[in-house]
Amino acid sequence: MVCALGAAVCFGTASVLQAVAARAAEPGTGSGVDPALLLRAVRQWRYLAGLGLDAVGFVLQIIALRHIPLYAVGAALAASLAVTAVVAARLLKVRLSRTEWGAVAVVCAGLLMLGLASGAEGSGTGSLALKLGLLAVVALILLVGVVAGRLPDGPRALVLGLASGTGFGVVEVAVRLIDSVGDLGDPALYAVLLGGGAAFLLLTSALSRGSVTAATAGLVLGETIGPAVIGVVWLGDRTREGLTWLAVLGFAVAIAGALALARFGEPPEPAPAVVSPG
């Protein structure tokens, strides 16, 4: 759990740096799948620093995924939004409201409950069909990204954020399914690589234009709910004896707090212009 929370700190800090870099980059084609936009963002030191933090966070995430249930890791990673809010308040001099500080506290309370209730990870290894299914999901989210590029900014950000979160969710599940890192014939290994790459690509496009709120809300939902269900149904993840209710409550509270924080950083709507008579 400590590794999962460490990953959340890395990912949350990286998000602040990457969002600034993505919005400073020259706009691309407008498609959700725009590798050129990613290449332009990578030229900025903030994006590179964010990628470095992502790499550290990914190592910590792998350790966590190998020891605790998927639902616990997913909720901890959703807490990266709380980290994003706190880091942005420090580095970008953004003032958090009492409601936002309250949402940070709610996320922490949910994670505490989840940590107390989480059991060991399940013993299920997953079938070949599940591994191939993850690759099919990666292909699907790339197709969704292409279609989402034609949507208006609001729905575009939500759909791209959800697709990106789904890609990160594929990575979470695939890490659990890898039998051996050296087995180049394991579909789960390619699901990790392709799912992570697709998720980064779509997230960069989502942050470059449109609502940050919609993008991050979609991201949280995509990377938590699906992996949690797969972990419980297919991989045998369980809670401590008699504490299932606490795990469910903690998961719900942590995600609710994260979704509340998704509004953090959204620029205020401009005031309508007042035209004086004459």
From TrEMBL:
Give UniProt keywords alphabetically: Membrane, Signal, Transmembrane, Transmembrane helix
Question: Per the UniProt record, which residue ranges are transmembrane?
Answer: 45-63, 70-89, 101-120, 132-151, 157-175, 187-208, 214-236, 243-262
Could you tell me which InterPro entries the record lists for this protein?
EmrE-like
| Domain of life of the source | Bacteria
Q: Where is the signal peptide?
A: 1-21
Report the PANTHER family cross-referenced here. Answer: CONSERVED INTEGRAL MEMBRANE ALANINE VALINE AND LEUCINE RICH PROTEIN-RELATED
* Designated name of the protein: Integral membrane protein
